[in-house]
């Protein structure tokens, strides 16, 4: 059974905008770390289960790893945010999101959207 950590309760309604943005950034980073940790844990469990039954993961899944096979990919941390929706973010990698393309076309600068 998994341990559940109790967090101290605090009122986000009393935080300043800067404090909220800082908190949001920390939460996004914590989510990325937790996602990586759970992915690794699941991979280990699948490998253990396959081994218990006399198989390797490569035998069960044909050794195909999907896009970017062989690369260790990390989850990017958001660097830019849509001012109308702070949850609509972009890491600065890959294709620019439509909300950003539209604003840049209207003369905005990329730095205007930095988190």
UniProtKB/TrEMBL annotation:
What Pfam families does the annotation carry?
Answer: Histone_HNS (PF00816)
One GO cellular component term: protein-DNA complex
Subcellular location(s): the record lists: Cytoplasm, Nucleoid
Reply yes or no: does the keyword Aminoacyl-tRNA synthetase apply.
Answer: no
Which InterPro entries does UniProt cross-reference here?
Answer: H-NS_C_dom (IPR027444), H-NS_C_dom_sf (IPR037150)
Q: Which GO molecular function terms does the record list?
A: bent DNA binding; DNA-binding transcription repressor activity; minor groove of adenine-thymine-rich DNA binding; transcription cis-regulatory region binding
Record key words, sorted: Cytoplasm, DNA-binding
Signal sequence: where?
none
Start and end residues of each DNA-binding protein H-NS-like C-terminal domain = 70-115
Which residue ranges run through the membrane? none
The family classification in the record reads: Belongs to the histone-like protein H-NS family.
Name of the protein: DNA-binding protein H-NS
Annotated organism of origin? Hyphomicrobium facile
């Amino acid at each position: 059974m998994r341990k559940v950590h109790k967090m101290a309760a605090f009122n986000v309604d009393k935080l300043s905008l800067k404090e909220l943005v800082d908190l949001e950034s920390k939460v996004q980073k914590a989510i990325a770390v937790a996602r990586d940790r759970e992915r690794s844990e699941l991979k280990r469990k699948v490998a253990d289960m396959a081994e218990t039954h006399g198989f390797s993961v490569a035998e069960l899944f044909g050794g195909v790893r999907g896009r970017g096979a062989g690369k260790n990919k990390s989850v990017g941390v958001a660097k830019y945010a849509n001012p109308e929706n702070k949850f609509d973010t972009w890491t600065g990698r890959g294709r620019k999101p439509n909300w950003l393309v539209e604003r840049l076309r209207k003369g905005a600068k990329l730095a205007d959207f930095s988190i």
